[in-house]
UniProtKB/TrEMBL annotation:
This is Purine nucleoside phosphorylase LACC1. The keyword Coiled coil does not apply. The gene is Lacc1. It comes from the Eukaryota. GO terms for cellular component: endoplasmic reticulum; nucleus; peroxisome. PANTHER family: PURINE NUCLEOSIDE PHOSPHORYLASE LACC1, UNCHARACTERIZED PROTEIN YFIH. InterPro entries: Cu_polyphenol_OxRdtase (IPR003730), Cu_polyphenol_OxRdtase_sf (IPR038371), Cytotoxic_necrot_fac-like_cat (IPR011324). It catalyses: S-methyl-5'-thioadenosine + phosphate = 5-(methylsulfanyl)-alpha-D-ribose 1-phosphate + adenine; adenosine + phosphate = alpha-D-ribose 1-phosphate + adenine; adenosine + H2O + H(+) = inosine + NH4(+); inosine + phosphate = alpha-D-ribose 1-phosphate + hypoxanthine. It comes from Certhia familiaris. Its EC number is 2.4.2.1, 2.4.2.28, 3.5.4.4.
Length: 438
């Protein structure tokens, strides 16, 4: 069932005001007839001309808006100078109300353009149905139809213009929740490596569980790739790395490792390089973003280590790749564990907990319970030390000087970090990143 309706008047010429008012009135009349069945949120999108005020635009539409009392509280006119700005504002309204099924009523000539905007500003969480503005005449048109309009391919230059418009608009938005903050380890020499772990501040993501510097988009979350790309651009500017040479692991919760410059696996949780200026990154939102640096052989790596990857030894797999590919010596490799869920908060079913208990009983608390507490950091450290990494070359939450601590519990610090364990399925993601300086 449709939850919201978007009426697109953006491209209609101002010299046909009477026609626009008539079209809008007829459309709203149809919507009102159906609103007794279920309450619909209605958004009217129109162009705010250069030099005009929002109030003036609404006054022009007032004759068509009068009389629709049942829609009054659910009806909003959104005026902006670009389609990107108007549509993104409407997306915010939809997200505030957790609405996902939207009917778009618009001129037929706008349909293919609108679909490109939607592809870039929304994700698969949302469902869209399109209807011609001129043919809305009965309640049936407000039901989701199985018939989909055949999609036409826009010329590549038109798509590029839309992408540029979206990018310019997103770049103009203010940062939320304060300035962008990067945590850095004192263990990794900053004269050789550029590195850091992000927090959740300084981006433009506005959905509470994603706000504000979310760095991952998926079909199950409401943050589109365009927003994540803008957050990443701001991070690259703040940190000083080249976004064109940025490589993030393709998470599979396993132990495969990608060697930069060689054939890339379909999925991998570790990545290594000895190329200067190439930034490697691993995500984390409870799982551990692990960074590796060898200042002698000048090589580095990053790994994503969740509970499955930890048990499969993804960190040592990354170390072994550095040894075999770049001739690194185990005693020279430095390892830093980033913000991740701590043993204070993280639980797993008893069967999974057994695997950690086998690594070391100290990795499990309340072992006899149905869901024991698990210390994936301790397990990671133990496996690294058993693999030959020197204890002094590992930085995690066991360091004695807490002023140097960067391995915070993500679940315990909602103001600083995202947490899947804490926030549920629509969670945000931070990253750890590292590169060899030119």
């Amino acid at each position: 069932m449709v939850e919201a309706i978007l009426i697109d008047l953006f491209s209609l010429p101002t010299n046909s005001q009477n026609n626009i008012q008539r079209l809008l009135h007829n459309t709203l009349e149809t919507i009102e007839k159906c609103s007794s069945i279920h309450t619909l949120c209605v958004y009217v999108m129109c162009c705010q001309r250069q030099g005009s005020e929002r109030k003036g635009e609404q006054e022009f539409l007032l004759p068509a808006l009068r009389g629709f009392q049942s829609l009054k509280r659910k009806l909003e006119v959104v005026c902006a100078q670009t389609t990107a700005a108007a549509l993104y504002t409407i997306k915010q309204r939809l997200d505030e109300k957790d609405l996902s099924i939207i009917k778009v009523i618009l001129p037929n000539l706008r349909k293919d353009l609108m679909k490109v905007y939607i592809d870039h500003l929304f994700t698969a969480v949302y469902q869209f149905e399109f209807e011609d503005l001129q043919v809305v005449s009965d309640c049936e048109n407000l039901q989701i139809s199985e018939h989909q309009h055949e999609r036409q391919t826009l010329p590549s230059q038109d798509v590029a213009l839309i992408q540029s418009e979206i990018q310019m608009y997103l770049e103009s938005l203010p940062s939320l929740k304060g300035e962008l903050t990067i945590l850095r380890s004192s263990l990794i020499p900053d004269d050789i490596f550029l590195h850091g772990f992000t927090t959740r501040t300084g981006g433009i993501s506005y959905i509470p569980t994603l706000s504000s510097c979310n760095l991952f988009s998926s079909s199950k979350r409401r943050d589109p790739q365009a927003v994540v790309k803008e957050n990443l651009r701001r991070l690259a500017n703040a940190a000083g790395f080249n976004l064109e040479a940025f490589h993030r692991v393709k998470v599979d919760h396993a132990n495969a490792v990608c060697i930069m410059g060689k054939s890339e696996p379909d999925n991998y949780d570790g990545i290594v390089t000895n190329q200067k200026g190439v930034t490697l990154a691993a995500p984390g939102a409870d799982c551990i973003p692990v960074l590796f640096a060898d200042p002698v052989r000048r090589a580095c790596g990053a790994a994503h280590s969740g509970w499955k990857g930890t048990l499969l030894g993804v960190s040592m797999a990354t170390v072994n790749a550095m040894v075999s590919e770049y001739g690194c010596n185990l005693k020279d490799i430095l390892v830093v564990l980033g913000p991740s869920v701590g043993p204070c908060c993280y639980k797993l079913p008893h069967e999974s907990a057994k695997e950690f208990h086998r690594i070391d009983p100290k990795c499990v608390r309340l072992f006899d319970s149905a869901s024991p507490y698990i210390d994936i950091r301790r397990a990671t450290r133990i496996l690294l030390e058993r693999g030959g990494i020197l204890p002094k070359n590992i930085q995690d939450d066991s360091i004695t000087d807490q002023n140097l601590n960067i391995t915070f519990c993500t679940a315990c610090h909602p103001d600083k970090f995202y947490s899947h364990f804490r926030d549920g399925t629509n969670f945000g993601t931070q990253i750890g990143f590292i590169s060899i300086k030119d």
